[in-house]
């Protein structure tokens, strides 16, 4: 059994988040856009803890998707992380109505959690362990890694993971890296909040223990991106944002 087979790709109900499996008939990659030297440098290959993180392929990048400082109006203090799952953006609040903006991928779990929390700790190249229920449901897939999958380039949590708690309780909500660069900027059927490995390393370097996190609801999507008093921008539509229905809806 290959390592790819061993890495779980479904939403982890009682553990950290992981990406969904690649499509059985993947679509051809889009043509690479023209990118500035700045963006190419940000997402070039990099060394981290003895590992070489590959460069992000140009077809998965754009000037808009790249991390950048933007205008951002909020009452949250500098250093706060604001996650907008519906717009697939994460903001690290700065002074003077500014924020660092990162593009993220959002899974079902990322759209089902909202409110405030804090980050008591983070992990570099975090390990991942399947739950007992996952092992019971699919022993062939999860049994070989029942004792955990060590951190690395093939681990679904990527280069860093920020663990979000509410009070003294782990929310099981994670902000982490990814092994699937093609997912960034999309709403997916599984997972929490994930960033390019280059971006999660940058974000983690700026985060300290106790950092506050605010996750916006669908009604709040776009909050902070326009000055106070202005209408919020329309929420981007994605079919994955809505539950599937069956039966006659007429």
UniProtKB/TrEMBL annotation:
The keyword Transferase applies. Residues 1-18 form the signal peptide. The active site is at residues 176, 192. Pfam families: YkuD. Residues 221-250 are annotated as: Disordered. Residues 228-237 have a biased composition (Pro residues). Residues 79-216 form the L,D-TPase catalytic domain. Pathway: Cell wall biogenesis; peptidoglycan biosynthesis. Keywords: Cell shape, Cell wall biogenesis/degradation, Glycosyltransferase, Hydrolase, Peptidoglycan synthesis, Signal, Transferase. Belongs to the YkuD family. This is L,D-TPase catalytic domain-containing protein. It comes from Thioclava nitratireducens.
